[in-house]
Amino acid sequence: MQVHRKGPPFERQMCKALSLWISGGERDDVFWRTAMSGGRATIGLARGIRRDAQAGDVGAIDPLGNRLLDHVVVELKDYRDVGLFTGITNDGGKLYRFWRELQAKASAFERRPLLIARQAGMPIICLLSGPTALQLFGLTQDHASAILPRWGCHIVLWDCFCREAAVPSLGEGIGREGRRRVA
Q1: Torsions phi, psi of 112, nearest 5?
Q2: pLDDT tens, 152-173?
């Protein structure tokens, strides 16, 4: 039987970690969990209402958080087994499904997907949508632990992301076509 560990403790941990990352270690209160883990934004989209501030599992409770969330939709997953091996070998499993769902959600909000996942006994990983997402954070393919071309993503270890990723600039992002855009 597949056991899903309850998400809120992991979500709180990651909101604090993202807050420390974006504030250069000064603050742990920039991000917090969104209502219904982004469900309110999803329901709004189905009704033709955009709730950009509530897309994904992580919301900004301080304007500094917009430097990240203007560019990406963040989902957080904590499972005993996320099915990474199944995903790599046959494009299936939980992680693959989560990634595909997040790609669609992020596209609906005109942002990039950022999936942060933890599997029991393994390091936390970040899935980023290809070279343009790496570029957004000042990363290169050398920072990726794995590149999954069929998924359209690069996997970066969370520790590497926190240590090496640059905070995106306000008002500047990478459009879906891979060209820079200025808001």
Answers
A1: -95, 150
A2: 999 999 999 999 999 998 654 4
